[in-house]
Amino acid sequence: MARRCSSTIARRGQHDRRRDRRAFGSRRSHDVHYAGQVLTSSPYLYPKLPYDIMKDFEYVTLAGTCNYVMLIHPSVQVKSVAELVALTKSKPDRFQVRIGRRGSSVHLTVELLKLRTGMQMVHVPYKGGAPAAMATAGGEVEMTVVSVSSAAGLVKTKKLNALAVTGPAR
Length: 170
Fold this sequence. Notes:
Shape: globular
CATH class of the largest domain: Alpha Beta
CATH superfamily of the largest domain: Periplasmic binding protein-like II
């Protein structure tokens, strides 16, 4: 079902409501859909969608959360996010950040950070968090933001430095 939903969302409004009901299920059905970040952030990214997140779905429960870690290559001589912000502002558009898919929760988190701090970074899309972390560890780019599970080994072995984590606690 998730594959059908993803392909339906990807078509961005190129079909009618009847096809949406087949893809997402009727509101009266007992289908359960695990709605990840793509489903919930899409209304803010795409103007015309074949569904209304508030009308076409019912929230059942929170299945889980994921915290992210901001990782910096050791060659970048910063010890805090404030120092990183200052560095990116002093070298506009020369600092590269490697992120997974465009529109992903990590990508949106980094874009929000840039908006709130005035950071100047070039976004380099990649094929997922773990490969992005490995590429950053290899020195291809200066920074990445990945899940804690993708970062743990690289931080423990000091291949990358962790500057910050998302979530309510460290």
